[in-house]
Design goal:
The complex is a heterodimer of chains A (about 300) and B (about 280). Chain A is an all-alpha fold and about 300 residues long. Chain A has 13 helices and no strands. In chain A, helix 1 crosses helix 2. Chain B is mainly α. The relative contact order of chain B is 0.11. The radius of gyration of chain B is 23 Å and the shape is flat. Chain B has two domains: about 55 residues; about 210 residues, MetI-like fold, CATH 1.10.3720. Chain B has eleven helices and no strands. Classes of the chains: A mainly alpha (about 300), B mainly alpha (about 280). At the A-B interface, helix 1, helix 6, helix 7, helix 11 and helix 12 of A face helix 1, helix 2, helix 5, helix 6 and helix 9 of B.
Chain lengths: ~300, ~280
Amino acid sequence: MSWFSQKLMPVLVVVLAIFLLWYAGAVGLNSRWAYDKAKRADVTLSFSEMVADTWSQDKPKLPAPHQVAQEIWKTTGAMVLRGKALSKRSLIFHGWITLSATVMGFIMGTTLGILLAVGIVHNRAMDMSVMPWVIASQTIPILAIAPMVIVVLNAVGVSGLLPKAVISMYLSFFPVVVGMVKGLRSPDHMQLDQMRTWYAGQSETFWKLRFPSSMPYLFTSLKIAMAAALVGAIVAELPINQNGGLGARMLVGSYYGQTIQIWSALISAAVLAACLVALIGVLQNVTLKRMGMLR
Amino acid sequence: MMWIVGSLLFWVLAWWVNMGLSHMPKSRLTSFVVPTLFGITLLILWEGMVRGFEINPVLLPAPSAIGAKFATSIPILWVDFAQTFIKGALSGYAIGCGAAFLTAVAVDRSPFLQRGLLPVGNFVAALPIIGMAPVLVMWFGFDWQSKAAVVVVMVFFPMLVNTVQGMRATDHMQRDLMQTYAASYPQALMKLRLPAAMPFVFNGLKICTTLALIGAIVAEFFGSPIKGMGFRISTEVGRLALDMVWAEIAVAALAGSAFYGCVAMIEKAVTFWHPSQR
């Protein structure tokens, strides 16, 4: 019960407040169009009619939550029921394209991040020369060069998933490097000395002490890296109209003023991000529990 | 061939020097020289590879070509910089971070709202908010206002989460001490809670510097007047004038690093008492 009132209730209240604000915002932003329409039709709208209209327009400035939910259902669940789950109009198809680029970039970024971190921890010269640049690389708004990376890679004949994955990789390697360096350095002097008294070599120290004790740090940074990878994949889909993906869906929506479509892509991206991060959270719990590191 | 061998030789040489330097006792000089030398090595490798393999400048221009383009098109770059960074990113950064900070202080008296806002804020901060860009461009028009709006939305939640966390950074002892001094709520806020929150606040501010620049540039892909860094990047890519694109990227990199550096310097002055600054 206390968990309910202490943790769940506040979150529910905040979420509810967001929904209320959303509905109110829809009224505020769409009322102009509702009044304009009524004026041309020579009818005067009562307040309740106006509100009903703002929540059911075709191309509203801000679609109401239930409109977005309907659109999402129409492009996912309903299409599955009709057996067209992978048609080009379904969000599952677009989500799958984005997801595969995200996961590919995430894996590449994580691998690169871990390798760099291992190098940085074991080699002083690398620590001093690479680390400042790793940090500096993130003050550069790298997403800005996303379109160029894609155009260039396309020109060399690399197209499809890889260019998007490269951008995801760039965004996701940084949290992994920083977290892993911290994690690999987390064993204290006592423990390292202990390894030395056991005559453990560098590789044994790494596999039996450094790597296991870096796990909590690794998982925390993996969550950040995953979210970053998804952002990278979506932005990578924005610049050129490609054959699919949630980002492309947003771009097409913005070309044709299909606000409901933009919002449904946006919400699906949010759900996707939440699922991916939650998945890593589960992996983290299972792994740390088996290693006996969970408090 | 000369170029490739030369640049590889330089790499080996620089690495050898760095190895030597890094085994000397750590000083200001070595911790400046080593990364700088590494950066120069990267540039020289890049130049050498581009010249040696005769890579088409449409694909990857050499650093020297980018530098030349940079030097000759400073007026354009400055106009773009003013449009995107000063008008779009900076104003959005100020509004967004300011609003988030004030919200965090406002909900400070209600632990209930704080407990609700933290998980929601953490969740939203992990979402691909950048996708809001087309919507906001539709709402606020093509000029810098829409870019500032994108920046506001992007920086709000990371900043909020960090500030709320910072406001909880004091421990019981310290708060009890304030109570024994009979400090009123505003007094305790100004003298204890806010100063103690500063490391967290600056952490948020630093994260937001990069987000602000990204938001402003990406928002320009969805429509902008005929100036701005994002606009220039997307049109010059279309014309395959990659040296200009790289020049814009250099500007973005310089602006981003300088912005981050400024915030880090202010942080150093404000939170001089924190262990991480000593």
